[in-house]
Design a protein that fits this description.
Elements: H1 3-14, H2 23-30, E1 43-47, E2 50-53, H3 54-65, H4 76-98, H5 105-129, H6 135-144, E3 154-162, H7 165-176, H8 181-188, E4 199-203, H9 212-218, E5 230-231, E6 237-246, H10 253-280
Antiparallel strand pairs: 1-2, 3-4, 3-6, 5-6
Helix pairs in contact: 1-4, 2-4, 6-10
């Protein structure tokens, strides 16, 4: 399949807000009429009363770029091909109208469902755009959550992992006799980290990477000392060495101001959304039979 056509389909199906999803409906309403579609920018393309402006086209290109898809849309050839595909779509849609496809039940239902989705999206956009977060709200949130906004403590950890209880005891004896932790790790550890002398780098607790007991030991052992051995969830035996500790630091208000503002704006917008839904429920006959889903 032509690469530009694939990109074109991506543009079409990723952005349900663009005019081209409602194209069939527009054509059905406007074919044979003199009404000309309004455009943004200079005229790029036209098929009878359908037109596309330079800014209309640029909006589609920019929308794709925001997804970081890796698609290269900067090439003039790619842009020309995409523009041609938009024109082709218009022609095919008009041919479909001529054959009466717009009267099909499935098409009508799809258009109706899209219209509902688009209207809801417009409503949500209005709610979000109309939500204002003041500097005072941001500052109050910062002061109330300063501890939670701190960067977590990081510890540079080395590990020695062995298969048996006796091997772990032998490692402790060798450490007490003054052997270097990294040397022992390289020679007998069964973990992948043995190649780096057991060095795991700077860590913050992450349940997906290790198990609870590992983090308990790693973050309670004093800097510059090794832990006692303990059994891991994998049945192996671990000894840890805390090489360095970076204490967590509280981020300044200026560092997190806009992040807080964005988060509060979304929270407040979600609340407005729910308030609108709750207050409007009495106007409609609503039935939800969720039990049927079990």
């Amino acid at each position: 399949m032509n690469r530009c056509f694939i990109l074109f389909l991506f543009v079409i199906f990723c952005f349900a807000g663009c005019d081209y999803f409602s194209l069939t409906k527009d054509l059905s309403n406007n074919m044979g009429k003199d009404e000309i579609k309004q455009i943004d920018g200079l005229l790029l393309a036209q098929v009878d009363n359908w037109r596309m402006g330079t800014r209309d086209f640029e909006k589609q290109i920019e929308a794709v770029k925001t997804l970081n898809t890796g698609a290269d849309l900067s090439s003039p050839d790619v842009k020309r091909n995409l523009l041609q595909e938009f024109v082709n779509l218009e022609i095919l849609a008009r041919e479909a109208i001529a054959k009466g496809f717009d009267k099909d039940k499935d098409v009508k239902e799809a258009l109706h469902n899209f219209k509902r989705t688009l209207l809801a999206q417009k409503m949500l956009a209005e709610i979000f755009d109309g939500t204002v977060v003041t500097d005072l709200e941001v500052e109050d949130f910062y002061e109330s959550n300063k501890d939670r906004l701190s960067e977590p403590e990081q510890r540079k950890i080395r590990e020695i992992v062995v298969n048996t209880d006796q091997e772990a005891k032998d490692v402790l004896i060798r450490l007490l006799q003054g052997e270097k932790f990294s040397v022992i790790a390289r020679t007998i550890s069964v973990a992948d980290s043995k190649r780096q002398g057991g060095d795991l780098g700077y860590l913050t607790p992450n349940a997906d990477e290790k198990f609870l007991r590992f983090w308990e030991v790693a973050f309670t052992t004093d800097q510059g000392t090794n832990s006692h051995y303990f059994k891991g969830d994998d049945g192996k035996y671990y000894i840890l060495y805390v090489e360095d500790v970076k204490k967590g630091q509280t981020r300044s208000l200026d560092e997190v101001r806009e992040d807080i503002r964005s988060a509060l704006k979304q929270i407040n917008a979600d609340k407005k959304r729910q308030d609108i839904i709750d207050s409007a429920k009495s106007k409609y006959n609503i039935i939800i039979n969720a039990d049927l889903l079990d």
